């Protein structure tokens, strides 16, 4: 019964730290790719995660490099305690403590205390593997990004279309990453059945299920959404490269392949691989995706976590050799570790509460700023409406004046024609007729009316004319008038009449205007003018 209790406590302690620290990195990366919004991914994620953690408990044929160097059942508890202690301490200065590294180092520490350690050669092999794994992940991420960029080079595909095409691949990569992470770190839950036999699988499997329940807790959920919304606010190519690189690294170090080059398979921390992948993509993009301080802290955490776990596990292992008193001390340490976890969560909640208050204050400030902007906009709109009303009133007055002027002109022409009929002298009649025709021709040009029309058009389309002058300062007055008439929907026939030129001249002027605007044969002149 004591052994079973130790198994449950150790598995829960190490498993809780893995879920709280590493799982949000995996889930947040999948969410950032957009694949997490798909129904199939939402359904398959817990199924794959649970299967990859629970099923290996019933498969004692699976072998890890630790082999027969696993500690005895009586030495199980210090491993969980040392893993938690090291992760909590490192978690105070880094968001990504290397929980799997701490767990493996704790196994080695207990082995040293009991005289059944992994050996210095094996320890060096693990340390070298822990160094090489992030380097491989960074290289794979950089290579994947460059391949994606090379595939998109020269293609004028819309961004939305690219995102849609990459979504199935992102869904596959996300599920592969979840499965690879769970399989790679399943040793934390299955190492006891591997050592003791399938009889303890019935104990480890419920422990796995209990740890998986933590995936639904608010802290884990908020952590993954924070990573998806804030840290991975980048393009799909970068996120997809990160998913593929991390999944490939997890799979590689869950297989016998590293042993062929003098390394070893080992559980890997998601945080370390995540920062390494971001660093690799940053080099490929020539643009930083991660803060240099975060990368440095992640490197320090990957070194300090196993060192602390090894020290704690060794000390606890030596204490447990003292018999009942040692067991009592270990249990007290377990209680202390639990208190540390509770204190850490309380601190995190306080920090989160402060962040929520700060966010609400920022929202209030943003709302007040938006209201002020709306007030200014409303005032400007009111002034604009008043200006337009004044313009309309002026138009009405001008129309009345124009009607009166036209009436006076027609009355004058009428009187001149009556006087012309009374003339008997042929030369006088011809001279009067020529004078009247000249007056009528001059009137046909509507010079004053057209000048008033262009002046009012300038006022009503002030913003358009300002943008037109800024973008194309080399346009002449005639070309600007033609642009305004085209924007208002006048046909070439009416433009010819208004500008007192022939329709053919209008077409020539349109061709010259297209050349000055930089339009090609396939571009629509009217649509381009309306888009300015």
Catalogue the unreliable spans: none
| Main pleated sheet | none
Order of helices and strands: HHHHHHHHHHHHHHHHHHHHH
How many separate helices?
A: 21
> Proportion of β residues?
under 5%
Helical residue percent band? over 70%
Quote the average pLDDT. 78
Span of the ends, CA to CA: 81 Å
The coarse silhouette is elongated
Total number of beta strands? 0
**From the helix content, strand content and strand pairing, which structural class follows?**
mainly alpha
Cα-atom Rg, whole angstroms?
A: 40 Å
Provide a compact summary of the structure.
The chain has 532 residues and is an all-alpha fold.
What does this 3D model show about the protein?
With 532 residues, this protein is mainly α. It has 21 helices and no strands. α3 packs antiparallel against α9 (201-213), α4 (77-91) runs antiparallel to α13 (292-320) and α11 packs across α12 (270-285). The longest helix has 98 residues, at 324-421. The chain is elongated and about 145 Å long. The mean pLDDT is 78.
């Amino acid at each position: 019964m004591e052994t079973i209790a130790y198994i449950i406590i150790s598995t829960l302690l190490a498993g809780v730290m893995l879920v709280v620290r590493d799982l949000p990195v995996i889930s947040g990366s999948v969410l950032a790719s957009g694949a997490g919004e798909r129904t199939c991914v939402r359904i398959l994620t817990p199924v794959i995660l649970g299967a990859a953690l629970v099923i290996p408990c019933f498969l004692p044929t699976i072998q890890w490099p630790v082999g027969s160097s696993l500690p005895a059942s009586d030495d199980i508890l210090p491993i969980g305690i040392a893993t938690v202690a090291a992760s909590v301490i490192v978690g105070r200065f880094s968001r990504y403590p290397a929980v799997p590294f701490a767990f493996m180092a704790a196994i080695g520490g207990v082995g040293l205390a009991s005289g059944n350690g992994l050996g210095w050669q094996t320890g060096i092999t693990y340390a070298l593997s822990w160094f090489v794994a992030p380097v491989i992940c960074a290289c794979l991420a950089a290579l994947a990004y460059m391949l994606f960029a090379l595939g998109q080079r020269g293609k004028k595909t819309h961004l939305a279309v690219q995102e849609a095409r990459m979504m199935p691949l992102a869904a596959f990569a996300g599920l592969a990453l979840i499965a690879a992470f769970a399989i790679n770190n399943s040793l934390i839950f299955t190492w006891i059945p591997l050592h003791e036999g399938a009889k303890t699988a019935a104990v480890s499997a419920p422990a796995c299920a209990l740890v998986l329940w933590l995936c639904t807790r608010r802290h884990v959920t908020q952590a993954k959404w924070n990573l998806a919304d804030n840290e991975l606010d980048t393009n799909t190519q970068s996120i997809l490269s990160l998913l593929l690189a991390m999944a490939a690294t997890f799979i590689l170090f869950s297989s016998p392949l590293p042993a062929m080059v003098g390394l070893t398979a080992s559980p890997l921390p998601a945080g370390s691989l995540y920062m390494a992948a971001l660093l690799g993509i940053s080099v490929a993009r020539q643009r930083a995706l991660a803060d240099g301080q975060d990368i440095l802290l992640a490197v320090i955490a990957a070194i300090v976590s196993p060192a602390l776990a090894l020290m704690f596990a060794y000390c606890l292992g030596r204490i447990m050799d003292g018999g009942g008193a040692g067991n009592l001390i270990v249990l007290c340490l377990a209680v202390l570790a639990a208190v540390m976890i509770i204190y850490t969560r309380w601190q995190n909640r306080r920090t989160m509460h402060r962040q929520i208050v700060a966010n609400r204050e920022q929202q209030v400030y943003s709302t007040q700023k938006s209201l002020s902007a709306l007030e200014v906009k409303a005032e400007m709109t009111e002034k604009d409406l008043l200006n337009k009303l004044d313009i309309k009133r002026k138009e009405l007055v001008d129309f009345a004046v124009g009607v009166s002027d036209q009436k006076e002109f027609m009355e004058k022409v009428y009187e001149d024609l009556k006087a012309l009929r009374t003339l008997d002298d042929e030369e006088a009649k011809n001279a009067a007729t020529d004078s009247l025709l000249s007056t009528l021709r001059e009137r046909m040009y509507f010079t004053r009316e057209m000048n008033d029309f262009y002046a009012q058009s300038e006022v009503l389309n002030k913003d358009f004319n300002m943008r037109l002058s800024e973008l194309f300062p080399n346009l002449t007055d005639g070309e600007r008038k033609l642009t305004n008439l085209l924007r208002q929907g006048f046909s070439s026939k009416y433009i010819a009449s208004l500008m007192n030129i022939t329709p053919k001249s209008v077409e020539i002027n349109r061709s010259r205007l297209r050349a000055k605007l930089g339009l090609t044969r396939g571009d629509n002149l009217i649509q381009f003018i309306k888009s300015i």
